[in-house]
Each structure stands twice: as structure tokens, then as C-alpha cells.
Amino acid sequence: MKRLLLLFLLVPFPLKSQPITGAFSTGTMNSTTTTVTKIVEQVVSKDYNSGYSYSIAGTGIEMTESGGIVPNSKETTGTADGVSYRWTGLDFSTKASWRQSENGAAFQLTESYTPPGLSNVTTINREMTVESVTVTQSIFQK
Predict the structure, then answer these.
(1) d(CA 98, CA 109)
(2) pLDDT in tens, 91-136
(3) What residues does 37 pair with on adjacent strands?
(4) Residue among 18, 86, 100 nearest 48 (CA)
(5) Would the N or C end of the chain have less CB density within 10 A of its end CB?
(6) Tell me, what DSSP letter sits at residue 93?
(7) What's the rounded Cα separation, in Å, for the pair 101 and 60?
(8) CB-based contacts of 110: which residues, under 8 Å, 6+ apart?
(9) In Å, what is the CA distance from 7 to each residue of 1, 10, 12, 14, 136?
């Protein structure tokens, strides 16, 4: 039996094997990613007059009482939209009175006052939609 085993080990036997291969030879992989972003914003701008403007002009008129042409100043305080304010404006209960200097004659009187405080509010509403598309292709082969 030892001889048979020794003979078996010394005599060559042909061995056969199969190559190992994958189930594919070439291929591609495609991927598409779409991202949509919606941006909604509101911009609010507020303009304030920190002082006042007062003017008076005319022809054919005169003041009815002595005193100043410009009314006395008056302080105003308050809160608007969470913002506290303190302005100096005019007290129109102390303004001058005017009359026509010559009865029946032509006259003109223009009085203009721009008070302190909020003068303008601008609101801009914007909505933007941004779409981004990414396409990826992978190609592989054996």
C-alpha cells in the first residue's frame, strides 16, 4: 500500500480548472440628482425725518397779531413697530394768523410743513426658485 501511495504521488495527473469571471463584461451606471430650492424674502425699509421743515410764503397778506412767524416747538414721543422715538416738531396751536392786507386785492398764502417721524415705508417681496440638476454617468468594463 505504501508503494501504491508513492507511485500515486510520483505519477503526474493533468489538472483542469475553469477561469473565474464576473457575470458582466461592460456596463454603465447613470445617476440624476435634482435639487429645487425656494427662497422667499421680504425686505422692509423705513425712512424717518429726524427734524421738521416749515415754510410760509405769500403776497398781499399780513399777520393779525404780534409774535413769531414760526410756531413754538413741541416734543413728540411714542413707539412704532417696537422702535421708540422722540421728535421735536411744531405746536400749531401757537402759529400765526394771517389776513388779507388790502380787502378785495389779490393775495396768495402758502404754508408747508413736513413733520418729523416716519415718512416712507418700502416693502419688497421676492420669491426665487432655483433648480439644480446633476447627471453622473459611470462606465466600467472588464
Answers:
(1) 9
(2) 888 888 888 999 889 999 999 999 888 888 899 999 999 999 999 9
(3) 130
(4) 86
(5) N
(6) G
(7) 5
(8) 55, 56, 57, 58
(9) 10, 5, 10, 15, 62
